[in-house]
Amino acid sequence: MQINVSQLLKESTGAKRNYQVADIVDGADSAGMVEGEVRLLRTNRGILARGTLNTEVEVTCSRCLSSFRCPIALNIEEEYFPTTDVVSGAPLSLPEEPSYFTIDEHHVLDLSEAIRQYALLAIPMKPLCREDCAGLCSHCGHNLNLGSCHCPSQATDPRWFKLTKLVNERKGTE
Fold first, then answer.
1. Rg (CA), the chain
2. Tens digit of each residue's pLDDT (9 = 90 or more) over 60-84
3. Angle at the Cα of 47 (from 46 to 48), degrees rounded to 5?
4. How many CB atoms neighbour CB 12 within 10 A?
5. Are strands 67-82 and 47-60 parallel, antiparallel or unpaired?
C-alpha cells in the first residue's frame, strides 16, 4: 500500500489529499484485502495519515477452535516523516520519538506496516465464530456446533441433588 507523496510534500502545511484504498496487505498470519479511505494532511514535520479501513483476518474461535474470517475496522492515525528533502534531496534529521513511520528517499509513503499493526490490535481477544457457539464437549472434544456427541450424560454432583429434584418437580407441574 504505497503512495507517492512528493507533490504533497512540496505544498504548504494544511494541504490535503484523499485516497481510496483497495489493496491486498500482508497481515499477521496472512494477506487480506483492505478497503476504505485515507486522508493525507501535510504537517509542518511530515504527513499525517488518517483513515477508516475495513478488512478481514483469519482467526480461531475461542470456544470451538474452528478457523474463520473475522471482519475488523481500522481507524488509522499516524504521522510519517520524510527522510530526504523533496527539493534538494538532502537527508533530513528524524524525530527522537521511540517509534515512527518514515517516507522513503523516493518520497513514497508505505501504509502496510501501520495497517498490519492496527489490525493486530483490532483482533478480538476471544473471537467467536458466532454468538451462540456451543464450543467443544469437555469429554470427547466433539465440536457441538456440528451436533451433539455420544458421550453418556454427566453424573450430577450429589450436592446439587435437592436443587435438581426441585427443578424436576417444577417441570412436572407445568
1. 27
2. 999 999 999 999 999 999 999 998 8
3. 130
4. 7
5. antiparallel
